[in-house]
Amino acid sequence: MTHQADFAAALFDPARPCPSGLRAWNGSDPALRHAVHRNNVVVSLVDALADTFPVVRELVGADFFAAMARDFVCAQPPRSPVLALYGGALPAFIEQFAPAAAVPCLADMARLEHARVRACHAADAPALGATAVAARLARPDALPGARLALHPSASIVVSPHAVVSLWAAHQGSGDEIERVELDRPESALVLREGEDAVVVAIDRPTAHWLQQLAAGAALADAACAVPQLDLAAAFGVLLRHPALTAWEEP
Question: What's the pTM?
Fold first, then answer.
């Protein structure tokens, strides 16, 4: 292990001692300086996670979130210089974090919030307009084998909990938080519109259909995989939002 790697590993593992061979420019104790630097790094990353997951933080409280985030940071430090996208693994971490089990929707809320961050930072691409989509729908013989590409900012969140309503309540744009039925399954299409990320509530069949399309399934195959799908309503979602960037016909 190189000296730099040894230094970095010690930053995120409190059980590791200060790496040997360090010297402070002012003659102070290297172990003390390293401990201060370790704390500053971890606190900065915890603060970054708090900015990315504000609703998750509100659901469990600032102290609980800080403790959970600190454990996450030490277990999974950043692997990319793009700090805005740090936290993609937090939902899976929450699922295994026993103290968070008291808030069953927490992991899916984290997925929804991180999807919004990804949408804001995703690559741009021109979306197919309603006229272009309508022209393709007017050729029914070409529809079954057509493959649709979703916008790079688009992602689908499917949850057994009412995370969409709960997220909206925390934005002040939905029901009061106390009135949200947490055990109601909800799904969302998250994508960028203009300069902001939006959360579009969709039914579960539409969500599964969009997941099939995102995985590369042809239009007919995607529809057959979701027997309960209301195809007209599903296309209505794609027409109201800039979710499609390509339509390849066989």
Answer: 0.86
Distance of alpha carbon 217 from alpha carbon 213, whole angstroms: 5
Based on the domain organization, do 91 and 59 belong to the same domain?
yes
Q: Are 56 and 108 in contact (CB under 8 A)?
A: no
Q: How far apart are CA 175 and CA 166, in angstroms?
A: 8
Looking at the fold, whether 26 and 45 belong to one and the same domain comes out as yes
DSSP type of residue 17: P
The runs of H, that is alpha helices, within 141-240 are 163-171, 204-214, 219-224, 231-240
User: Given strand 186-193, what is the order of strands in its sheet?
Assistant: 155-159, 186-193, 196-202
What's the Cα-to-Cα distance from 203 to each of 102, 199, 209, 233, rounded to whole Å? Answer: 26, 13, 10, 10
Same domain, 128 and 230: yes
| DSSP helix/strand/coil, 159 | strand
Residue 84: domain span: 1-103
State which of 103, 127, 162 marks the end of a domain: 103
As for how many domains the chain has, the answer is: 2
Q: Are residues 115 and 138 in the same domain?
A: yes
Cα(97)–Cα(138) distance, rounded to whole angstroms? Answer: 51
Q: Given 51, 71, 103, which residue is the final one in a domain?
A: 103
CA-to-CA distance for 107 and 92, rounded, in angstroms?
Answer: 7
* Residues 164-221: tens digit of each pLDDT: 999 999 998 766 888 889 999 999 999 999 889 999 999 999 999 999 999 999 999 9
